[in-house]
Amino acid sequence: MIRIGVDLGGTKIEAAALDAAGSELLRRRVPTPTAGYASVVAGIRDLVLAVEHALGQRGHVGIGTPGSASPDTGLHRNSNSTSLNGRPFAADIAAALGRAVRTANDADCFALSEASDGAGAGHRVVFGVILGTGVGGGIVIAQQLWSGRQGIAGEWGHNALPRRPGDGDDVDDRLVPHCWCGRRGCIESYLSGPALAADHRRHGGGALDAAAIAALAEGGDPQAADTMERFYARLARALASVVNVLDPDVIVLGGGLSNIDELYRRVPGLMLPHAFSDRLTTPLLRARHGDSSGVRGAAALWPLDR
Fold it and tell me: Is the full-model pTM beyond 0.90?
């Protein structure tokens, strides 16, 4: 039976069907419905059925989502797509499709994909990072996704950013940014794409998106360069805190901000002063499968022999 991976995003839902060897058979993408929770469930159902109809095969379905299901209640929580929160999302999708469905956090799916046959292949402990509209993380150990007792392993984006005023952070707590989760100073509120753009505006820059800021910095614009230096310093501190706890064999970056080439040159050297070690050799790598890792990892929630 084929495996169908679905990546549920804030603006699009993408599905890909993979054969037993992991080769892609078909990929489809639709806009994420905006009419509420029921429309999202229906949109995923319709997309999966359309893929199966096109291939003439029924498949096992895995879905990567923002947030995750509570192990205690089965209700979705921690999603920045807030219509999912408090809903029995996994059960509702299973009922809509009339079969068992497996779900996991989207960053977990990314990490599983990259650990299996991506940039983290061959490493025992892989920390996968999403730097995009949000900031997420996933942990894979010996090719197995590690979700943890609460099902939140890897959720570094909602730890507080380790702050160092000398690295460009505000020392006035009133200026610490708010996060959608209700807290202030979360890593996500500094290192997501929208957060990078907001930081640029706070320091007198124009209303530009993250890609434009990075391009201006590469072209020598001093204000954009200052914004990116703050970003690199903050990312280095945040990743060093993960190294101090997990000490992974490799860190793999995905999401839109992972496409900034300078990040891989600047950040590794900035991490060492914040690591509790005399050396830091952890590779910082770009995802091999790029935007495809989400759906590939979602499909991988079903083992090949099932």
Answer: yes
